[in-house]
Structure formats: structure tokens, C-alpha cells
Amino acid sequence: MRCFDRFLGTLRTHFAEITNYFFNRQTSGFVEGLNNKLKVLKRRCYGITNLAHLYQRVCLDLNGYARFGVESI
Fold it and tell me: 3-class SS at 3?
């Protein structure tokens, strides 16, 4: 069936990665979420010229709110 050719091609290309999930139950979800948080932070901090301030903002957004008893925003 020609309608499945594209799907089967993708399956053949990424077979090891797809089956790895079922054997190990590991995903890249954490890394994807972290990358998304950093991209959003970069957009929010547009114009910050001091790299130290950017790193402080990253630390605050990732785990700093817990120090103040506030849940992450």
C-alpha cells in the first residue's frame, strides 16, 4: 500500500530509537522541556547585555523560587 510508504520509511530510519523507548522507557522529555524553558527565557531577557545577569535569571527560573517558598511560575 502506497499510503504507508512514508511511515514505513520513517520506521526503518529510526527503528533503533523507537524500539529503545519500549525496552528502556526513557524519553528525551526532560531535555526538550529544559530547552523550551531556556528558549522562552532568552526571548524574555532580550536586551540583557551582562551575561552574569542572564545566568542569574536562568538559575532563578529553574530552581530559585523554591528558596523563597514560592512555587515555580
Answer: helix
> How many residues in total does the chain contain?
73
Spatial distance between the Cα atoms of 48 and 50, rounded to a whole number of angstroms: 6
Ordered per-residue pLDDT tens for the chain, 73 residues? 788 999 999 999 999 988 888 888 878 888 898 899 889 988 988 888 888 988 888 888 888 777 777 665 5
- Side chain identity at residue 47, one-letter code: G
- Backbone torsion region of residue 47, taken as left when φ is above 0, otherwise alpha when ψ lies between -120 and 50, otherwise beta: left
Q: pTM value?
A: 0.54
